[in-house]
Amino acid sequence: MSLLEVVIFFLIIWWPIFFILLPIGFRPITDEDNNTEFVKSAPTKPMVVTKFFIASFVSLILTLSIWVLDHYKLFSIKKFLLQV
User: Fold this and answer.
1) What span, in angstroms and rounded, lies between the C-alpha atoms of 67 and 10?
2) CB within 8 A of 21, min separation 6: which ones?
3) How far apart are CA 2 and CA 66, in angstroms?
4) What pLDDT score was predicted for residue 13?
5) Which end of the chain has the smaller Cβ count within 10 Å, N or C?
6) Range of the domain at 60
7) Distance between CA 56 and CA 59 in Å, rounded?
8) CA 2: distance to chain centroid?
9) DSSP-assigned states of every residue in 1-23
């Protein structure tokens, strides 16, 4: 895999993982929070930065795994896609 393929694979894997992580830990704003600046469906603590780093770490692990498999000729995405 070339560097461009690795970067593209990382980005394609990163987005779904990030969107899967977004609803985790969701707690909507309640009347007890006394916060009228936001709509009630907004999360109290979105933790977007934490979820960004978790998605990046998981994507990095998956990307490195696929790269190692491809580098040592144990598995090739190109050959797999050509067979389908």
Assistant:
1) 10
2) 51, 54, 55
3) 12
4) 97
5) C
6) 3-83
7) 5
8) 21
9) --HHHHHHHHHHHHHHHHHHHTT
Residue with tokens 């896609």: 81
**Counted domains in the chain:** 1
Q: How far apart are CA 27 and CA 14, in angstroms?
A: 24
The DSSP letter of residue 28 is B
What interhelical angle do 3-21 and 48-71 show, nearest 10?
A: 140
User: What is the predicted pLDDT for the residue at 36?
Assistant: 67
Which of 50, 43, 52 lies closest to 23 in space, CA to CA?
Answer: 43
Below-70 pLDDT ranges, the chain: 31, 33-36, 84
Furthest-apart CA atoms within the chain: distance in Å: 58
43 half-sphere exposure, CB direction, 13 A CA radius: 10
